[in-house]
Amino acid sequence: MHLGISYCGIALRYIGEYSQLFTFIIGCFPYNAASHSAKHLREFVNKILEEYKLQLDSTKFVVTDNEPKMLPAYREQCSRVGCADHYLNKQHSHQQQKLSQQLQTYSETRFDGTIIMLDIFREEILGALSEDQQPSLHRVIPLRQYLMNKCEVKEEDSAAIIRLEVFLGKKKIMLNISQAACRIKNAWHITDHHRLSTILHPKLKNLDCCIDEKEKSINVLKQEFEKHKLIDSSSCTNTLHLTQSNVQSSSPASTTSTTPKRKNLYVTMF
Q1: pLDDT tens for residues 185-220?
Q2: Can you tell me the distance from the alpha carbon of 150 to that of 148, in angstroms, rounded to the nearest whole number?
Q3: How far apart are CA 249 and CA 243, in angstroms?
Q4: Closest Cα partner for 92 from 116, 114, 108, 103?
Q5: Confidence bin at 134 (pLDDT 50/70/90)
Q6: 8 Å CB contact between 169 and 181
Q7: Where are the chain's structural domains?
């Protein structure tokens, strides 16, 4: 026996004299009719409208979903319009049946489907880059480039995939540049730390995954080596002066010399 509470949402839309659309949310009301039949549903809606001195007639259009009970509920004294999203989903489902290969997972048509798919990728990225047992900074550039590559429109892509890629990004017809790649490039910034950790990684040092970052990474690495050379040179000079001072102020038997340990750049990053 179903004991849950059902709700009925009613909104009013009106087109003004200059084709302006006005939307008013009347409310979301607990459905307390005797049953969910078409007759009781129509009576419930009419009762709510009467409270606002409104009524349905042949000049009014009612937009509902395509549930079977909606058809008889709004067959009279109004013009019913079915939900376009449901129609598209039904057509999509019929097309799916004609495919030679069936999809393993199927996602219904929805307005935020793209956002949901990107959220899944975002969760995977956050999981990969939040690793606390081993380094993960070197994975940022390859993962970023992977997502950008997937947004590029290819000749073998189907029309649906191309529309999705164009929606995600900035595809210019003549230049065939993906807008998604541009957006990702502008929003997902790469720092010198990312470049250093990638070029120092044994498997990624050639930066085959992202040629655009190769020259920048090499320049950053050169700059870091120059910094370390200056630090080592300064450290050796200070140690030499300190040793000479110790030799002059202490006996030969008690004189000890220590050589500073050079800090490896690779160890610093990893």
Answers
A1: 777 788 888 888 888 887 777 777 777 788 888 888
A2: 5
A3: 10
A4: 108
A5: confident
A6: yes
A7: 7-87, 110-150+190-247+257-270
Instruction: Name which of 50, 37, 45 is nearest 63 in CA terms.
Output: 45
- Conformational region of residue 156, where left means phi above 0, alpha means psi within -120 to 50, and beta covers everything else: alpha
Q: pLDDT for 227-247, tens place per residue?
A: 877 776 766 666 656 665 655
> Which residue, among 109, 59, 106, has the nearest Cα to 79 in the 3D structure?
59
Angle between helices 214-249 and 192-199 (to 10 degrees): 90
CB 77 within 8 A of CB 51: no
pTM exceeding the 0.85 threshold for the entire prediction:
no
* CA 42 to each of CA 49, 50, 61, 163: distance values in angstroms, whole numbers, following the listed order: 11, 12, 14, 40
Long-range contacts of 203-211 (CB under 8 A, 24+ apart): 204/138, 204/141, 204/142, 207/141, 209/141, 209/142, 209/145, 209/146, 210/141, 210/142, 210/144, 210/145
Quick one: tokens of 216?
């920048």
Angstrom distance (rounded) from CA 96 to CA 85 = 16
